[in-house]
Design goal:
Blueprint (H helix, E strand, L loop, with lengths): L3 H6 L9 H7 L5 E2 L2 H8 L5 E6 L8 H15 L3 E6 L20 H18 L9 E4 L1 H4 L4 H7 L6 H6 L1 H7 L7 H4 L1 H16 L1 E7 L3 H15 L4 E5 L12 E2 L2 E2 L9 H9 L3 H11 L4 H13 L5 H15 L1 H14 L10 H9 L3 E4 L5 H7 L6 H9 L3 E3 L2 E2 L16 E6 L3 E7 L1
Parallel strand pairs: 2-3, 2-5, 3-4, 5-6, 9-13
Antiparallel strand pairs: 1-6, 7-8, 10-11, 10-12, 12-13
Helix pairs in contact: 11-12, 13-16, 14-15, 14-16, 16-17, 19-20
Length: about 425
């Protein structure tokens, strides 16, 4: 369920004349159908719009969060959101640039549909006349025969046009090629838009710009079948200033589910944002006003070493995704790890998540501190470890180790956790067997 406290604090920036102007300023419009028509439509009466999320994993990730926040901004402007989770399209998966997706079982996809619907519900209000409505495209495709699909939907598509779509073209030029299954994905997504237009009067779809071919599949189909106009907005693919893919850490996505990416790891991800990227991230991922973001941009210019913009970004987005209590806990953990708080006061779950993000090792209850320094790579040898202790530069749970022969015995109970430190900022986690 949505967090009414967090949702109640969100608002669009009144310094903009309309929501379209704000979306553009925040860098959320990379490509779209007719901009003048979109601006006029969004500044007028309430319209129904949708964004689709396929259950190809048990959680949404940061790329999906961009779409959820676009949806929320449109909802705050008075428009009516439809959150589509693809119970049918998730069985296929949109074409990836390089290779076929692994098809998941129907049971797995159905389970993931429920997970994603729960996540979507947290970011969009269910209250009022424009409360979010969750829909599943399996509802209108499960009873559709292949013959009916080809006759009623497929006949409106031209293969030549389908081959020109970026995702399809890149796969045709790869060694893997593309199956008819994934080739047909754009027809299914176009059919979704048509059905939502018919059932709810939906006239706008949002999505990532890499989905542009699928987005226009729907606008074109509505025009051919219904003779009506529909619109699409493609948001930019967010990348880091050095061109690397945003939201990836050693090949792993930054998930919104706390079980797949702990609030501590999530907070640290944002805290480590580069100066060159932090203002763009504040525009996209927070509801801070233009005035406040411009203030932070000035601080990045004149006092970058204070990293105030990064702290604000990490706090805002972690609160948005995990709530105020979890955010307070991870901030307390960050401070305690660096000697600015009481480690004993941290809840075990938060402490464990924090230690898992550090170099860490599992140790026996009587393990040597010197050996643990080596095992966690805080030093390169036992002799270096002994020198570090002799120089007063080693501590366990913020208590200095003075004896070169010291062990964990009497310092950490079995099943416990500890923070091993060399110097002021080099940390490791110890998990006692």
């Amino acid at each position: 369920m949505s967090d009414p406290v967090i949702l109640s604090t969100q608002q669009n920036d009144a310094s903009f004349s309309d929501v379209w102007e704000e979306l553009v300023w925040r860098g959320l419009v990379h490509v779209s159908t007719d901009q003048a028509a979109l601006k006029e439509m969004l500044a007028g009466g309430a319209i129904t719009y949708y964004c689709g999320f396929d259950p190809t994993a048990p959680s949404l990730h940061l790329g999906n969060l961009v779409q959820l926040l676009v949806m929320r901004r449109l909802q705050l402007a008075g428009h009516k959101p439809l959150g589509l989770v693809g119970g049918s399209t998730g069985l296929i998966g949109d074409p990836r640039p390089t290779a076929e997706r692994t098809l998941n079982t129907k049971e797995t996809v159905a389970e993931w549909v429920g997970y994603l619907q729960g996540q979507i519900s947290r970011f969009l209000s269910a209250e009022g006349e424009n409360g979010v409505r969750l829909v599943n495209n399996l509802d209108w495709t499960s009873g559709l025969s292949a013959i009916d699909f080809l006759r009623d939907v497929g006949k409106h598509y031209r293969v030549g046009t389908m081959l020109k779509k970026d995702a399809v073209a890149s796969r045709l030029n790869s060694d893997a090629g593309i199956s008819y299954t994934e080739f047909s994905y754009q027809i299914l997504q176009g059919f979704d838009f048509l059905e939502l237009y018919r059932q709810y009067g939906c006239v706008l779809q949002t999505g990532g710009s890499d989905q542009w071919g699928n987005l226009t599949s729907g606008t074109d189909l509505i025009h051919r079948v219904e003779g009506a106009s529909a619109h699409a907005i493609g948001t930019p693919l967010v990348t880091n200033s050095d061109g690397t893919k945003f939201g990836k850490s050693e090949g792993n996505a930054i998930w919104l589910d706390a079980a797949m990416c702990s609030p501590y790891a999530f907070y640290q991800f944002w805290l480590n944002t580069d100066d060159a990227d932090v203002i763009e991230r504040l525009k996209i991922f927070t509801f801070l006003s233009r005035e406040r973001i411009e203030e932070l941009a000035q601080l990045v210019e004149v006092e970058p070493y204070k990293r105030e913009a990064q702290r604000v970004l990490a706090t805002e987005v972690t609160t948005l995704v995990h709530g105020a209590d979890a955010t307070a806990a991870v901030i307390a953990a960050s401070r305690a790890l660096f000697g600015q708080g009481d480690l004993a006061s941290l809840d075990p779950e938060t402490l464990e998540a924090a230690l898992r993000e550090l170099p860490n090792t599992t140790a026996a209850p009587d393990a040597s501190i010197v050996q643990l320094l080596v095992d966690t790579r805080l030093v390169s040898s036992q002799s270096e470890g002994r020198r570090a202790i002799a120089q007063g530069g080693v501590s366990l749970d913020n208590v200095r180790i003075d004896d070169e022969s010291a062990t964990l015995a009497g310092r950490v109970a079995s099943g416990g956790m500890a923070v091993l430190r060399r110097g002021k900022k080099t940390l490791a986690g110890i998990f006692v067997e």
